[in-house]
C-alpha cells in the first residue's frame, strides 16, 4: 500500500468506478471529485496521477454484442457530470484520459504496464474485479475502496497475495479463470459446463490452459471437462472469451493525453 512520499509510484484512477460515486449530484459532484483528488495527492504524494474515463463505445461490444447488455440505462445527467469531472482534473493539474473504443480498465492496465516497465510501482483505484489480473507483488496494488476519515482517507487494499489467498488462483491465472467461468455482471458466458470449482482445479493442476492442451493432446482418454475445453477451443469460444476478459495494456494513452491537452 502507498505511504506518504511514494515518489516513484503512479496512481491510476477509474473515475467512473471509484472516485466518483456521487456523479449525479449536479454542481456538487465536480467539487466533491476535486476535493477527493486534492486529499489523495496530499496524503500520499504520488509521482503522477492519471484519471481514466470510459469511452462511450467498447471494442468488446463489437466482438460480442451481448457484452454488458443487461446493465441499465445511464443515470440522467451523468454525461454533464463527467465533463465537469474532467475539468476538475485540469484545474488540479491532474492528467485525465478517455480513449475511443477502450474502457477505463484498459487505460489502467496500460498505465500499470508503463509504470512497471520503468521500475515504478502503480496503485489502481478501482473496485472492479478485473483489476486482479494486473496485480503483481511489490509492483501493482489495487485500492478497492476509499473511506474518508476527517481530512484523510483509509483504504481497502488488494494485492496479488490476496488474490491467491481469497480465490485459490493466482493473479496471473485470473484471465483464464474468468474465460472459463464467465462474468454475469459483464454478461459473457465462459465455457459451458465449467464452473468455478472445476476451473480452479484445472488451473491448479495445469497452471495454464496452454499447458493443459499440450499435455492432454497426447492422451487417448480425456476427462469430460477437458473434452469441453477442446470443444470450446475448436468453436472459437476460448479465443473470444480471452479477448473479452483480458485488459488491454497497449491503449494509445500518450496520443489521447496530447489531444486532451489541446482541447483545454
Automatic annotation (TrEMBL):
Superkingdom of origin: Bacteria
E.C. no: 2.7.7.7
Ranges where the 5'-3' exonuclease domain occurs: 5-263
Any one Gene Ontology BP term: DNA replication, Okazaki fragment processing
SMART domains: 53EXOc (SM00475), HhH2 (SM00279)
Iron among keywords: no
UniProt-recorded Gene Ontology molecular function terms: 5'-3' exonuclease activity; 5'-flap endonuclease activity; DNA binding; DNA-directed DNA polymerase activity
Keyword terms of this UniProt record: DNA-binding, Hydrolase, Nuclease, Nucleotidyltransferase, Transferase
Coiled coil: none
Protein's name in the database: DNA polymerase I, thermostable
UniProt gene name: polA_2
Amino acid at each position: 500500500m502507498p505511504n506518504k512520499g511514494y515518489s516513484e509510484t503512479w496512481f491510476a484512477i477509474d473515475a467512473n468506478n471509484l472516485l466518483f460515486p456521487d456523479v449525479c449530484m449536479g454542481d456538487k459532484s465536480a467539487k466533491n471529485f476535486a476535493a477527493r483528488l486534492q486529499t489523495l495527492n496530499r496524503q500520499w504524494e504520488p509521482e503522477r496521477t492519471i484519471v481514466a474515463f470510459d469511452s462511450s463505445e467498447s471494442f468488446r461490444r463489437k466482438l460480442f454484442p451481448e457484452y454488458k447488455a443487461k446493465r441499465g440505462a445511464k443515470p440522467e445527467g451523468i454525461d454533464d457530470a463527467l465533463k465537469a469531472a474532467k475539468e476538475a482534473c485540469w484545474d488540479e493539474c491532474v492528467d485525465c484520459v478517455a480513449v475511443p473504443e477502450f474502457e477505463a480498465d484498459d487505460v489502467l492496465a496500460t498505465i500499470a504496464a508503463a509504470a512497471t516497465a520503468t521500475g515504478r510501482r502503480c496503485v489502481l483505484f478501482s473496485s472492479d474485479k478485473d483489476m486482479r489480473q494486473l496485480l503483481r507483488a511489490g509492483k501493482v496494488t489495487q485500492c478497492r475502496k476509499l473511506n474518508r476519515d476527517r481530512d484523510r482517507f483509509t483504504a481497502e487494499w488488494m494485492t496479488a497475495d490476496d488474490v491467491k489467498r481469497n480465490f485459490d488462483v493466482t493473479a496471473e491465472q485470473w484471465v483464464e479463470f474468468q474465460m472459463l467461468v464467465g462474468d454475469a455482471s459483464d454478461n459473457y458466458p465462459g465455457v459451458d459446463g465449467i464452473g468455478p470449482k472445476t476451473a480452479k482445479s484445472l488451473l491448479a493442476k495445469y497452471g495454464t490452459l496452454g499447458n493443459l492442451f499440450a499435455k492432454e493432446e497426447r492422451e487417448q482418454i480425456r476427462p469430460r471437462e477437458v473434452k469441453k475445453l477442446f470443444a470450446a477451443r475448436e468453436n472459437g469460444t476460448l479465443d473470444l472469451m480471452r479477448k473479452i476478459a483480458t485488459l488491454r495494456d497497449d491503449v494509445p494513452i500518450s496520443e489521447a493525453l496530447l489531444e486532451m491537452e489541446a482541447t483545454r
